[in-house]
């Protein structure tokens, strides 16, 4: 926490903040989000992967929903985020969907309910998300169905989708493969 406190003035002015696997806790995340709120238009890339942010993702969501926030890349893999945290995150993305291009939520416990919330964000015509990583998130065929439905509603942006290490049957994999083959969709890279 002391090191993070010393970095906060620098973070306020940074375009890219990489704090993966730094032992950031709820208290540290509160300090970080406070610093980001003071200058939300500057930051373009934030990676907090491999920190246990479970409940702190709600604080981060407050920054993301700020209309001045221009964050393009967000890494939250293995942050102990559940479907509850995903609800806060997707709510923020729905209120400010046009900037985020790359979202990594791999190795979290999102399950189908969290993925359904993400599919609602993907349906928004203002959503410009190009890369979505959901590896090992407990997604089943039900979540995959919601996701493909969301992609069909707004086919023009997503280029890369990672659903590897989830519980998808062949029927779901076929749905995804069909999307990738269809020229109306921009999906170029698909992992399942």
TrEMBL record:
Keywords: Leucine-rich repeat, Repeat. The keyword Repeat applies. InterPro entries: Leu-rich_rpt (IPR001611), LRR_dom_sf (IPR032675), NLR (IPR051261). SUPFAM superfamilies: RNI-like (SSF52047). The keyword Repeat applies. This is Ribonuclease inhibitor-like. It comes from the Eukaryota. It comes from Carassius auratus (Goldfish).
């Amino acid at each position: 926490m002391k090191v993070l406190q010393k970095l906060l003035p620098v973070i306020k002015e940074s375009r890219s903040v990489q704090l993966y696997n730094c032992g950031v806790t709820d208290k540290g995340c509160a300090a970080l989000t406070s610093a980001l709120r003071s200058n939300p238009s500057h930051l373009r890339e934030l990676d907090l992967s491999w920190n246990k942010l479970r409940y702190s993702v709600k604080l981060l969501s407050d920054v993301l929903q700020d209309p001045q926030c221009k964050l393009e890349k967000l890494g939250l893999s293995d942050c102990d985020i559940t479907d509850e945290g995903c609800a806060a995150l997707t709510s923020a993305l729905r209120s400010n969907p046009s900037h985020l291009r790359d979202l990594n939520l791999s190795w979290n416990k999102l399950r189908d309910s969290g993925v359904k919330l993400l599919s609602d964000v993907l349906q928004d015509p203002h959503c410009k998300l190009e890369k979505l990583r959901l590896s090992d998130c407990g997604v089943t065929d039900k979540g995959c169905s919601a996701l493909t439905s969301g992609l069909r509603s707004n086919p023009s942006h997503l280029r890369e989708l990672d659903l590897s290490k989830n519980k998808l049957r062949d029927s779901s994999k076929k749905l995804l493969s069909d999307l990738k083959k269809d020229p109306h969709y921009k999906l170029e890279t698909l992992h399942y």
